[in-house]
């Protein structure tokens, strides 16, 4: 679908959300809206001088599980492989951008690597991964896996994806599902709570209807809540990293430059290793106003801002391309 069609629809929802009196807000707060909460002690920002304590702990425990899986795969692949006398590597897998094409190709790759879902010679290598990353369409795939507690690709295809994709991005749940009203209410309450809304809000919610189960279709699902899921707490899955490219709109950029800043969203942190940022902050409290890395008030932290649909939408946010097309078309 052409990007202008998505923008037109999303803009319509945003305009509806801005007219707050026209939509009756629910009496109970909807889960998509960020909330205010108590702050943890100390700073929420750290310099990018190494991995966080939480990631190092997960990495170490996951690596032990992954090493055993890699040993099984090596022995299965070649008889007599002496797996106890070698130092096993840390393995990561990433799925590139490319919207539904990268999503579906990446899903096929993971299915072929997953010993729960394949009898191919490559099956078992997914269990040997310590890290898994994704950008744009690859982030959709990673988010759908992680946000649903890592079922198999076949399970996701049969239970979610076939039905979700057949209606298209702009008809989530079919034409009579009431999804438009639900999405508009999500956006309306977020704005009423004092948070800025952008095209990424409806865009991420539309995607969520295809990637997550009902009844709220990821409305109450945050990236930081992945840390509470059984697959994560048992270190049975690779550490997920959602990647996004920065666009310097303040410098009149429309698309990421050749050295665009690479941002990471993980279950514990958000930030970048690149020199113009070189810092990370706690993802759970994303959206909190800070001074020198510390909250302005002990009872004024923001939570729930890291909605998984919003973050995967951020990873694939290409609406600034319209700016580029407009500038190109205006050049004689």
Automatic annotation (TrEMBL):
<comment type="similarity">
    <text>Belongs to the lysophospholipase family.</text>
</comment>
<feature type="signal peptide">
    <location>
        <begin position="1"/>
        <end position="19"/>
    </location>
</feature>
<keyword id="KW-0442">Lipid degradation</keyword>
<dbReference type="GO" id="GO:0005829">
    <property type="term" value="C:cytosol"/>
</dbReference>
<keyword id="KW-0378">Hydrolase</keyword>
<dbReference type="Pfam" id="PF01735">
    <property type="entry name" value="PLA2_B"/>
</dbReference>
<protein>
    <recommendedName>
        <fullName>Lysophospholipase</fullName>
        <ecNumber>3.1.1.5</ecNumber>
    </recommendedName>
</protein>
<keyword id="KW-0732">Signal</keyword>
<dbReference type="InterPro" id="IPR016035">
    <property type="entry name" value="Acyl_Trfase/lysoPLipase"/>
</dbReference>
<dbReference type="GO" id="GO:0005783">
    <property type="term" value="C:endoplasmic reticulum"/>
</dbReference>
<comment type="function">
    <text>Catalyzes the release of fatty acids from lysophospholipids.</text>
</comment>
<keyword id="KW-0325">Glycoprotein</keyword>
<dbReference type="GO" id="GO:0004622">
    <property type="term" value="F:phosphatidylcholine lysophospholipase activity"/>
</dbReference>
<keyword id="KW-0443">Lipid metabolism</keyword>
<dbReference type="GO" id="GO:0046475">
    <property type="term" value="P:glycerophospholipid catabolic process"/>
</dbReference>
<dbReference type="GO" id="GO:0004623">
    <property type="term" value="F:phospholipase A2 activity"/>
</dbReference>
<feature type="domain" description="PLA2c">
    <location>
        <begin position="38"/>
        <end position="332"/>
    </location>
</feature>
<dbReference type="InterPro" id="IPR002642">
    <property type="entry name" value="LysoPLipase_cat_dom"/>
</dbReference>
């Amino acid at each position: 679908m052409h990007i202008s069609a998505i923008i037109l629809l999303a803009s319509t929802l945003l305009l509806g959300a801005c007219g707050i009196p026209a939509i009756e807000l629910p009496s109970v707060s909807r889960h998509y809206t960020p909330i205010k909460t108590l702050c943890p002690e100390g700073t929420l920002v750290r310099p990018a001088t190494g991995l966080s304590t939480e990631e190092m702990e997960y990495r170490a425990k996951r690596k032990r599980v992954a090493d055993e899986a890699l040993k099984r795969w090596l022995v299965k692949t070649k008889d007599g492989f002496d797996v106890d006398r070698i130092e096993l590597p840390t393995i990561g897998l990433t799925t590139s951008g490319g919207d539904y094409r990268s999503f579906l190709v990446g899903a096929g790759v993971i299915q072929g690597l997953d010993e729960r879902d394949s009898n191919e010679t490559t099956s078992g290598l997914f269990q040997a991964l310590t890290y898994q990353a994704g950008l744009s369409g690859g982030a959709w795939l990673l988010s759908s896996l992680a946000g649903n507690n890592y079922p198999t690709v076949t399970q996701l295809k049969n239970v979610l994806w076939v039905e979700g994709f057949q209606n298209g991005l702009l008809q989530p749940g079919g034409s009579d599902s009431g999804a438009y009203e639900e999405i508009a209410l999500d956006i309306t309450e977020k704005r009423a709570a004092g948070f800025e809304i952008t095209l990424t809000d409806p865009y991420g919610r539309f995607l969520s209807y295809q990637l997550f189960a009902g009844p709220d279709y990821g409305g109450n699902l945050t990236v930081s809540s992945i840390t509470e899921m059984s697959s994560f707490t048992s270190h049975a899955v690779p550490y997920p990293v959602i990647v996004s490219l920065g666009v310097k709109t303040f410098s009149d950029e429309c698309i990421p430059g050749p050295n665009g800043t690479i941002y990471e969203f993980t279950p514990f942190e958000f930030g970048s290793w690149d020199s113009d940022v070189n810092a990370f902050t706690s993802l759970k409290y994303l959206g909190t106003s800070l001074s020198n890395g510390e909250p302005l008030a002990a009872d004024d932290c923001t939570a729930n801002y890291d909605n998984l649909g919003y973050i995967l939408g951020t990873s694939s946010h290409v609406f600034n391309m319209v700016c580029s097309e407009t500038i190109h078309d205006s050049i004689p």
